[in-house]
């Protein structure tokens, strides 16, 4: 029986790609670099914003200085525009409501920076009682390091066998493996079914309602 469901954020709970692409392209343009098509960002995201900037910059310009300049431009812009086009995926809110009704503990473990993670969750899922909402924080390793999931399990007082990690990327699947918990790959997010199945997740969900079948 699963008593704790830990969700990734971008590509799992929320479709954030348009606002992430817009903010990154804004920063690139300010630095004199060419923007990318929105669909390119599906492969850029997943490992936190610093890795996003590195991937978005031209190959010969991926210096520590340019990455920091990207951050300085991206964060203020994204803070203002992060809800312009972002929306929960169809069926996500009913899923979270039903899991809550069934007394399943819910949490978020994201590589998005902490402030934005908290703001997006409180805005789009105000009525959902998450036990923990964690993004990337100073001094804490990013996923796929398992520390974040282990911290959530400790706070929820739930063991690994009772925990399910739900995400849309290879990073998420590796996070679950590193934490010793079962993984559910979702097919509506930012990565392909082929890429996700290559990670051999315990479960695969084609739509949010499928996740309810994993409770037992």
Question: What would a concise description of this structure say?
Answer:
This protein has helices at residues 17-30, 41-44, 49-56, 64-81, 92-101, 114-124, 147-156, 170-179, 193-197, and strands spanning 4-7, 14-15, 87-88, 105-113, 132-136, 163-167, 182-186, 203-205. It has 216 residues and is an alpha/beta fold.
SSE layout and pairings?
Elements (H helix, E strand, L loop, with lengths): L3 E4 L6 E2 L1 H14 L10 H4 L4 H8 L7 H18 L5 E2 L3 H10 L3 E9 H11 L7 E5 L10 H10 L6 E5 L2 H10 L2 E5 L6 H5 L5 E3 L11
Helix pairs in contact: 1-4, 3-4
Number of helices: 9
Strand pairing plus helix content: what structural class?
alpha/beta
How helix-rich are the residues, as a percent range? 40-55%
User: What's the number of domains?
Assistant: 2
Biggest beta sheet attributes? 6 strands, parallel
List keywords for this structure.
six-stranded parallel β-sheet; two-stranded antiparallel sheet; alpha/beta; Rossmann fold; 9 helices; single chain; 216 residues; DNA polymerase, domain 1
Structure, explained:
The chain is an alpha/beta fold. It folds into two domains: 4-15 and 86-214, HAD superfamily/HAD-like (Rossmann fold); 17-81, Orthogonal Bundle (DNA polymerase, domain 1). 42% of the residues lie in helices and 16% in strands. The protein has nine helices and eight strands. The strands form two sheets. The chain has a six-stranded parallel sheet with strand order 5-4-1-6-7-8, with helices on both faces. It has a two-stranded antiparallel sheet with strand order 2-3. The chain is globular, with a radius of gyration of 17 Å.
